[in-house]
Amino acid sequence: MSEEKKGFFARLKEGLTKTRNNIVSGIDSVFSGFSNIDDDFYEELEEILIMGDIGVKATNEILERLKVQVKEQHIKEPSECKQLLINSIKEQMQVGETAYDFEHKQSIVLVIGVNGVGKTTSVGKLAGKLKDQNRKVIMAAADTFRAAAVEQLEEWAHRAGVDIISGAENADPASVIFDAVNAAKARKADVLLCDTAGRLHNKKNLMEELKKINRIIDKEFPDAHRENLVVLDGTTGQNALSQAREFGEVADLTGIILTKMDGTAKGGIAVAIQSELKVPVKYIGVGETIEDLQKFDSEEFVNALFDIDVKEG
User: Fold this and answer.
1) Does the pLDDT value for residue 306 go beyond 70?
2) What is the pLDDT of residues 98-140, one digit of tens each?
């Protein structure tokens, strides 16, 4: 494990302390409190997982898989199936191998999300990470209705050492995207990262805006690989899941950036989102610096959640 990864794992583990207290201590008490694997045992587990924000759908799938494995392996002792439960949660959360294709192709990435979830910051961090991989990045400040968003993104562009295309305050976001797409083509950029507005309370306007943006990209740069990432605040639990569903109605979501995972008791929502929406969590954030946004790794996340130290090898 690299130093950066080690540091992130430690911060993730620390960040998930409240979630661990919320879910894992309950799970442990079920495994130690029951002498038989019966309906009551499964019911207790179900209640703890649902209360831990893992969600009904994910919980049902995890427990169904667990029941099959318990039967197949003739397991009688509750303590013996804890590892099976952990593996089942990991399987629920696996991110496909093609999840990060956009990093290696000429890509346009639209980042959406409501105000306050860390959307603009995530765009900035992502730009920094891609720049570190020697990718040529341009950012588009298309969240033109929030004055601070443009300034914030300009600050990130300066910090990451990447170009930024922005318009005047209250400019038409689609016109900013038009300029940015053409700049990306002219400058032979690898990735165009677009910070877009996320006014979910006015879904019709947002839908029209995203349609317009998509039409421009299709017309100006039809060959670009497309990615639509929604940024969700991990501390909001089930509310984040509802937001993701609503954004899924206005955009074809390809991935999720889950922020503010440090210090939340609702970290189980990462499992629920992936299971309910079949949209992978691609990045997870546990703090303010560029290093605090990392690619999501189900193995690492569940190990941090259950406080499992992985030996190097």
Assistant:
1) yes
2) 889 999 999 999 999 988 888 999 999 999 999 999 999 999 9
The CA-based dihedral angle spanning residues 226, 114, 201, 225, taken in that order and rounded to the nearest 10 degrees:
0
Starting from the edge strand earliest in sequence, which strands make up the sheet with 107-112, in order?
163-166, 137-142, 191-196, 107-112, 225-233, 255-259, 281-285, 293-295
Give the separation between CA 272 and CA 76, rounded to whole angstroms: 28
Rounded Cα distance, 78 and 81, in Å: 6
Report the distance separating Cα 162 and Cα 157, nearest Å: 5
Asked if 302 and 27 count as a contact pair (C-beta separation under 8 A), the reply is no
The residues pairing with 166 across neighbouring beta strands, listed in sequence order, are 141
Asked if 238 and 276 count as a contact pair (C-beta separation under 8 A), the reply is no
Q: What is the spatial distance between Cα 99 and Cα 185, in angstroms, rounded to a whole number?
A: 24
pTM: 0.90
Residue pointed to by tokens 């998509």 = 214
Phi, psi of 250 (to 5 degrees): -105, -15
Take residue 211 and report the two structure tokens written for it: 């349609």
Burial, 89: exposed, middle or buried (Cβ in 10 Å; 0-12, 13-18, 19+)? Answer: buried
234-269 burial code (b ≥16 CB/10 A, e <16): bbbbeebbebbeebeebbebbbbbbbbbbbbbbbbb
- H-helix or E-strand spanning residue 275: helix 269-277
Give 41-46 contacts, CB < 8 A, sequence gap 24+: 41/78, 42/66, 42/67, 45/85
Residues in the chain: 313
Contact 67, 78 (CB under 8 A): no
> For 169-195, what is the mean pLDDT?
93
Beta strands in 98-181 (DSSP E): 107-112, 137-142, 163-166
Q: Each residue of 222-238: pLDDT tens digit?
A: 999 999 999 999 888 88
pLDDT of residue 5: 67
Amino acid symbol at 300: E
Facing residues of 258 across strands? Answer: 232, 284
CA nearest 227: which of 106, 107, 141? 107
Whether 66 contacts 280, CB under 8 Å? no
